[in-house]
Amino acid sequence: MRIVLKNAAKAECFCSLFQHIKLFSDHINIMFERSRVYIQSMDSSRVSIFEIDLPATWFDTYELENPATIGISSSMLFKVLNTRDKAQEMCFMVQNEDPDKLEVHFTSDNKSVFDKHFELPLMELECDVMDIPVTDSQAELTLPSMNFANLIAQLRLFGETLEIKCDEEKIEMYSLSSELGKMTVDIDIDDLTEYSINEGESIKLSFSLTILQNICMYSKITKEIELKLTENFPLSLTYKLGEGGGRMSFYLAPKLQDD
Description:
The protein is mainly beta. The protein folds into 2 domains: 2-121, DNA Polymerase III, Chain A, domain 2, CATH 3.10.150; 139-252, Proliferating Cell Nuclear Antigen (Box), CATH 3.70.10. 14% of the residues lie in helices and 44% in strands. The protein is built from 4 helices and 18 strands. It has helices spanning 8-17, 74-81, 145-156, 209-215, and strands at 2-5, 27-32, 36-42, 48-55, 61-63, 68-73, 89-95, 98-107, 116-121, 139-144, 161-166, 170-177, 181-188, 194-197, 203-208, 224-229, 235-240, 247-252. Helix 3 runs antiparallel to helix 4. It is elongated. The model has no long low-confidence stretch (mean pLDDT 94). It comes from viral metagenome. InterPro entries: DNA_clamp_sf (IPR046938), Pr_cel_nuc_antig (IPR000730), Pr_cel_nuc_antig_C (IPR022649), Pr_cel_nuc_antig_N (IPR022648). Belongs to the PCNA family. Pfam families: PCNA_C (PF02747), PCNA_N (PF00705). GO terms for molecular function: DNA binding; DNA polymerase processivity factor activity.
């Protein structure tokens, strides 16, 4: 297996994908399939699932004799990626004669930047990939990811639960607690990049602000975030990773609402 990333913007994005994964999972399986690189894991509280989907065409070189799955420490992988200079291209290799190690190489034509080489031990992890059903969402909205992250951080100051209401006229988000009071955010649908909701539909759902705040740690990897809401189903949040079809998605189970 040999995979190379030369595009500077994509290499930077790839490194950023692993920056906060330890907030969700200490160890991850990376699945190298013929058509893509795929990662899926569930957080320790079993409330959210994240997945990373990068098509083979997202990379400059994608050489794979056979599909392979490698288990690795998420924090150790980021420590390695964090040593990369922005001028360096990235190469990932697993040798047939030494399948228990992942080789990572950072190289550059710039002689003032020293090449770096790593060998990381791999581990065997359970590899139960969950089938995430495709559902017709009742409401979809797209907005600037930094704006959404700032709102979530502010709402978290007033409680642990996000209440979100959507109808054809507006979107309302709020959080409250008896000790701290209440914060409400009214979002005019004209201020969103995209918004759609089933005709006559009104939705009210609750989600963990703590986990949403962790998800929003990725707000800098792309300009916008896409949310899909459906009653009795997890909230879908997606960062689309530029051209080429790559994406990072999260699925957050709703909280039970008091009647």
